[in-house]
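Q: How do we represent a protein-ligand complex in a form that can be generated cell by cell?
A: Start from the inputs.
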Amino acid sequence: MIRVFTFCLSLFIGLTALSSAQDFSKVEIKTIPVGDGIYMLQGAGGNIGISAGEDGVFMIDDQFSPLTPKILSAIANISKEPIKFMINTHWHFDHTGGNENLGKMGVIIVAHDNVYERLSTDQFIKAFKREVPATPKDGLPVVSFNDEVTFHMNGLHIKAQHVKNAHTDGDSIIIFKDKNIIHMGDTFFNGFYPFIDTGSGGSIYGMIDVAATLLTQVDDKSKIIPGHGPLANKQDLQNYHDMLVQAVNAVRPLTKKGLSLEEAIKLDPLKDLNEKWGGGFLKPDQFLGIIYQTIADHNK
Ligand SMILES: [Zn+2]
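Then emit the C-alpha cells for the protein with zinc ion bound:
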C-alpha cells in the first residue's frame, strides 16, 4: 500500500514539474537546423518542428503558453514570414499550451479529430490524476482530419498521418515527404521511457507498431524529431523500439501469472533496461505501472 502511495506521489511530483505552475522564466529556446528549411525547437515540453520558406511558416506543436513570446522570437530569427499553420501532434498540454495565443494571432490550427474532441472538453489524465480544463475557443483546431492531411508549401509536401492508439488516441506523425525528415510527436521519446496515456486511449502495443512501421520506411540518413529528447536517427528509433519490445516481453509472463502491480514491482522486471532508459521523465516504477495494466488486459 505504501508502495502504491509512493508511486502515485512520485507521479504527482513528476507532473507538477510539467505543469503551468512551472517557472518558465529561465527556459531558453534552442533552434536546431534539421535541413531543407526545417528546424527543431527545444525549450520546455514537446519538441517543436518548423518549416520556414517563401510561403510562410508551418509549425508543429507549441509547448506551454508562457513560452509563446520566446518561441515567436526564435521563429522570427529563422523567418520573417508569418506563421500560417500549426498542427498539434496530440492533445497534451505540453504540446498545445500555446494554441490560444497562436489562434488569436490568426494562425490556422490543425489536428486529428480526437485532438479536437479532447481539447474541446474537460479532460482527466488518469496516470497523473490531473484535471485539464477545455481549451478556450481561440485555441481549438479549426481544421480536423480523421486519417491524413497533406500541406503543400515551401516546396514541400508535409503529410500528417494519424496513427492508432499509441501515445493517445489522437496521435499524428508528420512526414516531410521526399526530405527524409519525420516528426513523431510523443510516439517517440528518444533515450528514455515514454509516458503512454492509457486513459486517453494510448497503448504500448500501438507505440511498438508506430516504431516498427517507421523503421521499415527510414534509412541511415533519416532525421527523426522525437516528441521529447534530442534529434534522432534510425538507430535511436531502433533502440527505442527494441526497448519497448523487451519491456513487454519482460512484463507479460508476470501478468500471465496474475501478479498484482505491487507484486510485479517487487520482481523488478525492467531491471535490465532501467539504467539506460529510466533516467528521464518517467521513473522505472512509473513506466512499469503505466504499461502493466495494458499488458494484463491484452492477455485476457
Ligand atoms: Zn504527450
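Residues 253 and 259 are 9 Å apart (CA to CA). The pocket of zinc ion is lined by residues 90, 92, 167, 186 (CB under 6 Å).
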